[in-house]
Amino acid sequence: MQASQSPPPDHLRYLRDDDMPQAFQDLLSSLPLEEDWFPSLRLYQGFWFPSSLLSGIFNCQNHFQAYLSDILLVTNPKSGTTWLKAILFALLNRAKYSNSDSQGCHPLLTQNSHELVPYLEHKLYLEQENPDLSALASPRLLATHLPYSSLPQSVSDSKCKLVYLGRNPKDTFVSMWHFTNKLRPEGKGQIPIQECLNRFCRGVSPYGPYWDHVLGYHKASLEKPEKVLFVTYEQMKLDPRAHVRRLANFVGCPLNEEELRDETVEGVLRMCSFDNLSSLEVNKSGKLWNGLESKLFFRRGEVGDWVNYMSAEMGERIDGVVDEKLHGSGLKL
Ligand code: A3P
């Protein structure tokens, strides 16, 4: 942690990077730094990563071995990861919890989806240099925020599946601004949104530039549609039923005729709805492995909420930058 920044409180110890080995500290300090974003960010392989996660990123890049059957869920932070994790978990495990008795003990009722679908670089490879993941139930459902170009080699070489969830940049930005404010040490107050916006538009945000992150996966989804599925938060909101079917087909657990007729899809959507998940005790008062409160991952869960925090001018500024970067890609967000 840089001397000019106060260290995060103990319950956010995962944001600290001062107890890493010296060699790693040296490497870390050679990377360009953005201190003003909390937690601080370092530029590595063309993207701004939270400094405290870099050891997890290196470990994961060096050691993760993808299996053909793996399903990797990828997002830019604040794009709806919590929701998609829940949906994919519920879909893959639906046979186990299909009747009313088993529904009552569904893991999503007592565990946050971030615990059920672990992050590679945030959790598994941050806690251990080379964790043994061979015992995880198959197909392994894992998550990452890593950009496409920074994925471990074995992921690129394998035929494992990647599901990417994109989100409108203005809503992603506002969601990220709120989240970042909640992570700031007590007494530091909110970061002025205009300051945050300036950085976002320069490409400086966790796992940013936002547009390069999205474009990497969008391009991959066009080149390798059997490997990468690109979906957006807005599409999911607009027609959740169709997208649950699409996700199920892509990850190799299609809904059968009976499931398409009965309440299966509605059951998954009900279980994973914002209202249901955010009202569960585990998500109201629970904490994640890293000390973060689960409730931080549930705010409004709506499309277009940016208008409540940014002027039209600020919105146009984000649109201008992002539209220019996305120009020619065929992608509109
Ligand atoms: P808002 O801040 O706009 O409300 P992530 O999970 O990637 O951190 O993204 C968090 C965003 O997803 C937050 O957006 C949060 O409210 C929203 N979200 C969380 N759970 C959701 C759900 N079940 N359905 C829809 N949106 C959800």
UniProtKB/TrEMBL annotation:
Keywords (A to Z) from UniProt: Transferase
Domain of life: Eukaryota
Species in which this protein is naturally found: Rhodamnia argentea
Family under the similarity heading: Belongs to the sulfotransferase 1 family.
Protein name: Sulfotransferase
The Sulfotransferase domain, residue ranges: 69-330
InterPro entries: P-loop_NTPase, Sulfotransferase_dom
UniProt keyword annotation of Electron transport present: no
